[in-house]
Design a protein that fits this description.
The chain is of the alpha/beta class and 311 residues long. The protein has a single domain, classed as Rossmann fold, CATH 3.40.50. It is built from twelve helices and nine strands. Strand 8 and strand 9 form a beta hairpin. Helix 2 packs parallel to helix 3. The longest helix has 23 residues. The protein is globular and about 55 Å long.
Amino acid sequence: MSGRVDAATIERIKRRIRLCDYLSVAQLYLQDNFLLERELRPEDIKPRLLGHWGTCHGINVAYANLKSFFADDANFSFVLGPGHGFPALQANLFVDGEIARIDPRATADADGVAYICRNFSWPDGFPSHASPMTPGVIAEGGELGYATANAYGLCLGHPEKTVAVLIGDGELETATAIGSLNLRDILTGPNNGRVLPTLHLNGYKISAPSIYARKSERELNELIRGFGFNPVIIDGDNPESFQNDLSLDVDSPFYVLKTEKGKGGPNRYHTAHQIPLKYPKTDEDELQMLEEWLKSYHAEELFDREKGFMI
């Protein structure tokens, strides 16, 4: 694929990102009023909030763009490294109907939205991290570092496959992740598939700045080149830029996606790794902030009770 992508495709990607961002937030917080069809009330909020928001927007940006770009490739796979960003992964799998394949309650309607959101991080429901009960997942999402090795394993002996792997910038600090980049030299060849590493550089890991976000662009690029890749910087979450960068004719590309941690969430909590607003059930100001946050995605433009998802 080459050339500039059409406006209709760009709009579909933007709408998908908005929808999955909304579903990510709704999973973290809501036990009722999932489509915000009335004013948000304390009883709509889960009594215990558990999960990770900070990485979700970047996951949704990467997933939407890669899925769109490789839409015609039946041998394309996406591997997610930061599995603690499970609300985003589950949102995408829900929208694509993958969860409904194994769980008929995850229907593409208002009942399905309620089921996915109410049961996220809930007893006998869905865990807060990706887990093997999720379609296509083989490891618990809190165990960072294995994604790149798994991506190369998927391509081993399968020259027809293309696997994009999203790596968290904190994850790349693990010995397993950084060591796995050496697999490019071992597994590059006509008998194996193609791995497309994408570093999600959002600047923070749990409670501290990430090392790679504090390196200069030159330092980071030289590190990437040292492993035999060619760095391609994707600065921001504009789908047109992302699609154009994917279409570049680059040998052994290593994409670096720069997005702001927690983008879209409450401004003063934007770098929060887990739950940005911890007390919306009891704090009126936080409840209002959560409502404004959810309304900012304009879910009424993305979902219809009769038509389902409109993306």
